[in-house]
């Protein structure tokens, strides 16, 4: 009987795998009818997205259901292009073409926070503890009172087109149109750190552990492991899509948004990148990991989301190091009710999928769908929402594929 069932599964699954590659893993919700979604942030259960219109205007939008729907949250701003968002405690800040705005009401209302901001066009905001930094076309400004007053801190900053910030220990980094600068005294003085940077037009920065990443306009991504003293290009897998507008991370897993190539993912701290674009448009300008989702904003007024569980798996390296072969182990326990553990190994970094099918070949769960590092991986499947019966787990990685039979008994 099992053999007959398996044959049914194979005949149906072959057709499904031939046609399911285009099934969308990302879902979108429209925040606005048009505009570029430039930044994504959160306070508690509220999600915020900033919008910029090339013809002027934009604003901020709020979602209270993890991005399923959005409403305008721009009262008090007027007509502004919002380029950046930042959060300090319960204060939400928006950097716009006319300066900085602050909301203490979760986006319900906004007030201008511009005193001392002599260069108002704000392209970047960064909260370093309780200190807020604003990047403008006139350099860096600093506020220690939630934006009520600003002070220019540009000594040594030879390029004042500032687009990004990052902090590592006591060092503050600023990404400009002329490379990266570092300050060891909270912006008091700046020093250029550009050794190895073959592209200087910075657009985004991120710190992951001891790695500092800088995303550029037309040169891709650079990484420094020594506080900016030297930089190395880490573009493997990006191809020609090197206009990088945003970086985000959860643990050591990285995401980047590009103009033309969509969203990329790295499971090895930027050494390799792979597209995770099924269902996505090509032009993305913001990316963020919030809760159990990764979010991306496009240039058409929409915010996209995808569950992290479809992309990331926990990696356990065996005592002997990275396995040289691919394998799909039998799940345990088996039979199970309602959760089970599935282990698999991949010999090389690459796109991997792990899916569950019922006896009719219908997909009931996607456990992995993205680039994963070489190693032994472990995922958990909770089958509480499906009936008892025989299921099939199929692993595909490169040219390797394997299937295991699972028995759910409730």
Q: What's the story with the biggest beta sheet?
A: 4 strands, antiparallel
Inertia-based shape: globular
Integer-rounded radius of gyration: 23 Å
Number of domains: 2
What's the total count of β strands? 36
The CATH topology name of the largest domain reads Methylamine Dehydrogenase, Chain H
- Strand order of the biggest β-sheet: 1-28-27-26
Helix content: under 10%
Mean pLDDT: 88
- Uncertain segments are 1-24, 314-323
Helix/strand/pairing class, anyone? mainly beta
* CATH architecture verdict of the largest domain: 7 Propeller
Strand content bin:
over 45%
Main CATH class of the largest domain:
Mainly Beta
- How far apart the termini lie comes to 21 Å
CATH superfamily of the largest domain: YVTN repeat-like/Quinoprotein amine dehydrogenase
The number of helical segments is: 1
What does the model show?
Helix content is 4%, strand content 49%. It is mainly beta. The protein has 2 domains: 2-21 and 314-408, Macroglobulin (MG2) domain (Immunoglobulin-like); 26-308, YVTN repeat-like/Quinoprotein amine dehydrogenase (Methylamine Dehydrogenase, Chain H, 7 Propeller). The radius of gyration is 23 Å and the shape is globular. The strands form 9 sheets. It has a 4-stranded antiparallel sheet with strand order 1-28-27-26, with no helix packed on it. Strands 2-3-4-5 form a 4-stranded antiparallel sheet, with no helix packed on it.
């Amino acid at each position: 009987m099992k053999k007959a069932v398996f044959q049914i599964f194979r005949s149906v699954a072959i057709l499904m795998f031939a046609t399911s590659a285009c099934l969308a893993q990302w879902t979108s919700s429209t925040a606005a009818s048009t505009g570029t979604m430039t930044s994504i942030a959160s306070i508690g259960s509220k999600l915020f997205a900033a919008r910029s219109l090339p013809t002027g205007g934009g604003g901020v939008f709020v979602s209270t259901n993890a991005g399923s729907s959005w409403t305008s949250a721009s009262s008090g701003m007027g007509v502004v292009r919002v380029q950046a968002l930042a959060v300090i405690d319960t204060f939400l800040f928006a950097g716009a073409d006319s300066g900085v705005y602050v909301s203490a009401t979760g986006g319900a209302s906004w007030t201008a926070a511009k005193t001392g901001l002599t260069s108002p066009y704000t392209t970047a905001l960064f909260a370093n503890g309780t200190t807020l930094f604003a990047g403008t076309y006139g350099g860096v400004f600093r506020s220690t009172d939630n934006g009520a007053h600003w002070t220019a801190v540009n000594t040594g900053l030879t390029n004042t087109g500032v687009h990004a910030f990052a902090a590592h220990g006591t060092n503050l980094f600023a990404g400009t149109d002329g490379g990266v600068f570092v300050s060891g005294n909270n912006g008091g003085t700046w020093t250029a750190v550009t050794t190895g940077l073959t592209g200087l037009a910075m657009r985004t920065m991120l710190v992951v552990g001891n790695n500092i990443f800088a995303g550029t306009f037309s040169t891709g991504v650079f990484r420094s492991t020594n506080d900016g003293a030297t930089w190395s290009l880490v573009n493997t897998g990006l191809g020609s899509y090197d206009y990088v507008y945003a970086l985000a991370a959860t643990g050591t897993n990285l995401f980047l948004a590009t103009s033309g190539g969509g969203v990329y993912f790295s499971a090895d701290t930027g050494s390799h990148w792979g597209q995770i674009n099924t269902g996505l448009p090509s032009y993305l300008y913001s990316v963020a990991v919030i809760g159990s989702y990764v979010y991306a904003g496009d240039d058409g007024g929409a915010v996209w989301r995808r569950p992290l569980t479809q992309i990331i798996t926990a990696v356990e390296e065996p005592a002997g190091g990275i396995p040289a072969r691919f394998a799909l182990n039998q799940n345990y326990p088996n039979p199970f009710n309602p959760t089970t553990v599935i282990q698999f190994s991949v010999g090389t970094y690459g796109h991997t999928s792990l899916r569950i099918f019922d006896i009719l070949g219908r997909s009931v769960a996607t456990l992995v769908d993205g680039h994963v590092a070489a190693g032994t991986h472990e995922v958990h499947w909770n089958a509480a929402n499906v009936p008892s019966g025989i299921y099939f787990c199929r692993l595909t990685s490169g040219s390797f594929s394997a299937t295991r039979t699972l028995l759910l008994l409730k």
